[in-house]
Amino acid sequence: MSQNASALPSPMARSEGIALRRGVVLTLFSALLPGSAQVVAGNRRLGRWVLRVILVVIALVLVVGLLALLIAPLRNLLLGFLLGPIPLRVIQWGVLAWTIVWIGLIVDAWRLANSRVMSTAGKLISGTLALALAAGGGAAAVAVSRSVGSLAGLSDSVLVGGGSNKTNAGRFNVLLLGGDAGKGREGLRPDSMTVASIDAETGRTVLFSLPRNLQKAPFPADSPLHKLYPNGYYCHVKDLSDACMLNGIYTLGVTHKKLFPGDKNPGVTATQSAIEETLGLKINYWAMVDLAGFQKLIDAVGGITLDVGVRVPMGSKETKGGIKEWIEPGKNQHMDGRHALWFARSREGSTDYARMIRQKCVMNAMLKQLNPTTVFTRFSEIADASGQIVATSLPAADVGTMIELAAKAKSLPMASVSFAPPMIVTWDPDLALIRQTVADTIAASEQADIRATAPPQTASPSATATKAPGTPSSKPTKTAKTSKTNKTDNLDSICKA
Quick one: pLDDT at residue 457? Predict the structure, then answer.
């Protein structure tokens, strides 16, 4: 009996062990289910109130989330609301406020375990656990709050709105401008101008690129610049090599900003109107990105993979030091932001028209390779890089629609047309040919969608696409010339991205 009695722990040791286990359990439960420790061993009223709040929030999120998954318009409406600067700021500070409450509940749970009766080792173990949970949760909350804050700043400064969500013949047309605010330039001058025409149902996309040196770009009759240039943007000078080009319309609009009262982006408005008139398309949204933002965005998503067909120099012979690096030909080359930027913009030994193709290859690669996991894991970096975008007329309310269409487009081939020689003469472009090419290419894209969705017996090459009212006919007009160069490039086959 005496031997068994001596084998048992002393009452104090047992009390210390019970207190340690109690402290560990209460602390863990408080971290996993805030308020539960208080319900069991502390202020039951406080614990029940916290649990009720948590259950209500969880139920609300589940119900709204489920409805959003099932109902696309509700999903887009919810996303648009959450992307507003005010809701985002509320979430940003709400996360921090809740974290303070959560940490307080953990500390209170450790207190309820009565650490005074614990051994020194028990106090160290339970205290370290509580501190680690509080520190880890606090760090995570700060990271989440920072990401939401970045998104709020992005929404406030970049999503300026003003675009139209009204489809044009069943399509969204988005103008993408790549600007260069380099030395010797006043403001941003768009050197890359591409219109993405997106089917509002399927997401199938066609890219139309216009060269920066296009001249005689017309202004619509309702443009204030039409009176100044009734026959298109043209200068009566001897040297037309760098005069009155399409990319100069941005500066023209800024110079004549008094003609655009109340417009915060007269340069973009002027450029958009000229491109609309040139292509015969009504543009819904525009987005302008500077070079620094482009490079950071590529880095933020972890780079892109491209097939490189020709050797591309990184630099210029005219710059100090000349060309020291090259992007060598090869398949499946992974590029960071710096290399991708040079691949898209390199001029040395190349033409503007070759650059147009390379730029669209980069855009195609980003669309195909960007995935939800990347966005989630690199959200802060992407938000910070996206802040380098000058602006976009896409309002927060329409972001969900564009994301949904982009997801659909990932699995579809992307067609591309570059309006460049020999199809057109840049100093005297055939506008009728350009507009007819746009109409024919869109009609062919929609025909592909009809063949993809039609039953086998009705999917034939002679099938005719049903066009919405206002869509140009795919039949050549009397003024449109037929050209062998009037063809569509499949970027999936060219870029292999």
Answer: 52
DSSP state of 333: E
Predicted confidence band of residue 12 (pLDDT cuts 50, 70, 90): low
User: Whose CA is closest to 231, among 242, 217, 245?
Assistant: 217
Token pair of 322 as six digits: 């000349």
- List Cβ<8 Å contacts ≥24 apart for 264-267: 264/160, 265/160, 265/391, 267/187, 267/188
Report yes or no: 395 and 156 within 8 Å, Cβ to Cβ.
Answer: no
DSSP string, 410-458: TTS--EEEE--TTTS-TTS--HHHHHHHHHHHHHHHHHHHHHHHS-TTT
Cα 89 from Cα 185, distance rounded (Å) = 36
Reply yes or no: is the peptide bond before residue 422 cis, omega within 30 of 0: yes
Q: Are 171 and 280 in contact (CB under 8 A)?
A: no
Written as six digits, the tokens of 55 are 């259950």
Confidence band for 54, pLDDT divided at 50, 70 and 90: very high
Count of CB atoms situated within 10 Å of the CB of 458: 10
Asked whether residue 50 carries a pLDDT value surpassing 70, the answer given is yes
Token pair recorded at residue 343: 């691949």
Length of the chain equals 497
- Mean pLDDT across 279-283: 96
pLDDT tens digits, 228-238: 999 999 887 66
C-beta separation of 29 from 39 below 8 A = no
* Average pLDDT, rounded, for the chain: 81
pTM: 0.71
CA distance 67 to 80: 15
Alpha helices in 216-256 (DSSP H): 249-255
pLDDT at 105 over 70: yes
Would you give the DSSP letter of residue 232? -
| Tokens of residue 224, six digits | 């204030």
What is the chain's alpha carbon radius of gyration, rounded to the nearest angstrom?
A: 30
- The answer to whether residue 2 scores a pLDDT higher than 60 is no
207: helix, coil or strand?
strand
Mean pLDDT of 299-325: 82
**End-to-end Cα separation, the chain, in angstroms:** 80
Q: Looking at residue 292, what is its pLDDT?
A: 66
Query: In whole angstroms, what is the distance from residue 358 CA to residue 343 CA?
Result: 7
Q: How far apart are CA 92 and CA 84, in angstroms?
A: 12
Helix (H/G/I), strand (E/B), else coil: 166: coil
